[in-house]
Amino acid sequence: MSLVEHKTLGLIECVRSLRARSIRLVVRRDGTLRLTYPLFSSRAKALAFAESKREWIEQTRQRIAQRTAQYPTISPEDVEHLRREARAYIPTTLARLAKEHGFAYTSLRISSAQTRWGSCSSRNSISISLFVMLLPEHLREFIILHELCHTRHHNHSAAFHQLLNTHVGSKEKAYNRELKSYHIPRITKE
After folding, report:
1. What's the predicted TM-score (pTM) here?
2. CA 3 to CA 182: how far, in whole Å?
3. Rg for the chain (alpha carbons), in Å?
4. How far apart are CA 34 and CA 137, in angstroms?
5. What is the CATH number of domain 73-187?
6. What are the residue ranges spanned by the domains of the chain?
7. CA distances to 54, 79, 112, 156 from 84, in Å
8. In angstroms, rounded to a whole number, what is the distance separating the alpha carbons of residues 135 and 71?
9. Average pLDDT by stretches of 10, the chain with 190 residues
């Protein structure tokens, strides 16, 4: 691996790989490039390939910048604060909602997942992201009820949506629309 400061493309990490069959170019979240190329290819040829993709690189960097601007950031200290709040709130709320609505689950895991609010395994083990603590109360309960409904329907079938809608007072679509306006934050590095 070597780092190359390209005059127009910026920092490029060049990696010659045994497993590579062709030249591969990746734009990272921070805008830097990773250029992987096979042993039979030269670094100069790989850099020429990257230069030929200049327009694509700029478009990709712009898309990443727009997406990143939409997502809030959070410090590791704030994550620990959320973790404490989640440990106090989620287990009791899950137990209460399960009892009120007649659901059974096998276990609970509070995660720091940044790709989804919650999940339910085929064994009815529920995982809830600690980032639900950033949501209003009604959306926290909506996510928990969503996962509880998966203990009966391990899919997103019509029967699942009907069950969920019944338990949220016919507000599933409205809650889903509202939930889309929230994003799980990225954790800053300090």
Report:
1. 0.66
2. 37
3. 22
4. 42
5. 3.30.2010.10
6. 2-70, 73-187
7. 46, 9, 12, 31
8. 14
9. 88 92 90 93 94 94 74 85 96 98 97 92 97 95 98 96 97 94 79
